[in-house]
Design goal:
It is built from 14 helices and 27 strands. By secondary structure, the protein is of the alpha+beta class. Helix 4 crosses helix 9. It holds the Pfam family HGTP_anticodon.
Length: 502
């Protein structure tokens, strides 16, 4: 029907020429490269560093640090135009796959009464923390690892402490090697790493802070730190007014289980209740950009099942892996009936389900696929990020799957001042924007505009040039290969017909 319909396909053809010919079938021919650029070399691919991802996200309007004009607010982030669009694509895809005929939607309050949250696991939202006695820096004990530094001559240099990473043992060895070199000794390997949270009392006087190897014993013992943001509701400041910003979206679903069960048409187990919403955790050490932040968004669904029914486990796994553009996706966790039982005991109100088929009353068991929107956003961006070379020039490109791309197609008038070219571009843009998120980009030379669109992940660029005035065709360029084809304008977008009176 139209070349751009391929954008919604889960497995779009890899080359724009193939897309055009298979969908248009009108003898589209490959146009000469406007940039005379070869296809990018696959060997040029590099794994992105976090600072490269952060820089691109800010530069192109995906993610900004919150309150930047006031020097920032650590652990909080704002999403710009492209970031908001990418988040919407992620959420819509999840919602389409998860909240179907056998599930209902919910949208519950972000502020939860203290007794409500306490009934479930208010004590579970805490992390073991340690403090540097000298600098007063605070660290999560479960993210620090220490190791004994044994030397080849049988002596010991004490302990070294490092942060958990992809190569924790390597980080510890490199830090210890520096100490050994300073002491004129050779460090033995491998090192035996232990989590600081599990350190024995007799080991603590020998364990230094992670950034001060010369200060052994300068860390406090681990103690629990509550991760929840507490607030009060109403004018009173007593315990009855205590409330929390929810640390997860699940509890609102559990406390509304009976409400949904009694009001949703066709409610019968197995059945799911899903919602997308904000959650808040007072992380002491937010890190890795938006991977661990204090305000985040969750996509969560609770599958309520009869005891012993594992049929939805397979479906939960399958749906978790459907997001385009990711090699793998998070799985799910089994919660059994813990939350429903805790809320039943605390409230004194039964959350049991009466099964009309078996005439039994029971607390359902639960399978809980939960995915963080922000973490998934970061995974999609990192998976899409590549660097290659075109005409000897380094190119940063986000190779989003078309279904995820914030901008689906860019319309590029070759010159800014030609009325005929701009009229065609405006008309084409007006057609396409009714179905896709598009950009009309006329600023800068054509090569620079291609690079700009590549960097934000736009799958296709449509260039209107002087030949378009004569042959009624445009050039369609593929982001990934830089291949181009010449297509008739009517093949690029089907004209919308007026439907008045129909």
């Amino acid at each position: 029907m139209t070349v751009l319909l391929s954008l919604a396909s889960a497995r779009a053809l890899q080359r724009v020429g193939g897309r055009a010919r298979s969908l248009c079938g009108r003898g589209a021919t490959v146009a000469p490269e406007a940039e005379t650029a070869p296809a990018p070399a696959p060997s040029a691919y590099v794994v992105p560093k976090m600072e490269e991802v952060v820089s691109l996200c800010k530069k192109r309007g995906f993610v900004f640090g919150s309150s930047e004009i006031y020097n920032g607010f650590n652990g909080f982030y704002d999403y710009g135009p492209l970031g908001s669009e990418l988040k919407r694509n992620i959420k819509e895809r999840w919602w389409r796959d998860m909240v179907r005929d056998d599930a209902s939607a919910a949208s519950t309050s972000s502020i939860i009464a203290g007794q409500d949250l306490g009934a479930a696991h208010v004590g579970g939202f805490s992390d073991p923390m340690v403090d540097d006695k000298t600098t007063k820096k605070r660290y999560r004990a479960d993210q620090l690892f220490y190791a004994e530094l044994a030397c080849d001559d049988g002596s010991s240099l004490g302990c070294v402490t490092v942060f958990e990473s992809e190569d924790t043992e390597g980080d510890a060895y490199r830090a210890g090697k520096k100490l050994a070199k300073k002491a004129g000794k050779t460090l033995s390997r491998p090192l035996v790493l232990k989590c600081l949270e599990d350190a024995a009392d007799e080991d603590r006087p020998r364990i230094p802070p992670p950034d001060a190897p010369d200060r052994p014993g300068d860390l406090t013992a681990p103690r629990d730190f509550n991760l929840m943001f507490q607030t009060s509701v109403g004018a009173a400041e007593d315990n009855s007014a205590a409330a929390y910003l929810r640390p997860e979206t699940a509890q609102g679903i559990f406390v509304n289980f009976k409400n949904v069960a009694s009001t949703a048409r066709g409610f019968k187990l197995p059945y799911g209740i899903g919602q997308i919403g904000k959650a808040f955790r007072n992380e002491i050490t937010p890190r890795n950009f938006i991977f661990r932040s204090r305000e985040f968004e969750q996509m969560e669904i609770e599958y309520f099942l009869p005891p012993g029914d594992d049929a939805w486990r397979a479906r939960a796994r399958a749906v978790d892996r459907r997001l385009p553009g990711l090699a793998r996706a998070p799985g799910h966790r089994r919660a059994r009936s813990f939350d429903l039982k805790q809320h039943t005991d605390a409230s004194g109100k039964s959350l049991e389900y009466f099964d009309d088929g078996t005439k039994e009353k029971y607390l359902p068991q639960v399978i809980e696929p939960s995915i963080g929107v922000d973490r998934l956003f970061l995974a999609v961006v990192c998976s899409a990020f590549e660097e290659d070379e075109v005409n000897g020039e380094k190119r940063s490109v986000l190779k989003f799957h078309p279904a995820m791309a914030p901008v689906k197609v860019a319309i590029l008038p070759l010159v800014k001042k030609d009325a005929g070219i701009n009229d065609i571009a405006a008309a084409l843009y007006g057609d396409l924007k009714k179905r896709y998120n598009c950009q009309l980009d006329a600023a800068g030379n054509i090569g620079r505009r291609y690079r700009r669109q590549d960097e934000i992940g736009t799958p296709l660029c449509v260039t209107v040039d002087f030949d378009s005035l004569d042959d009624g065709a445009v050039t369609v360029r593929d982001r990934d290969t830089t291949d181009q084809v010449r297509l008739k304008i009517e093949d690029v977008a089907l004209r919308h017909q007026a439907r008045r009176g129909r």
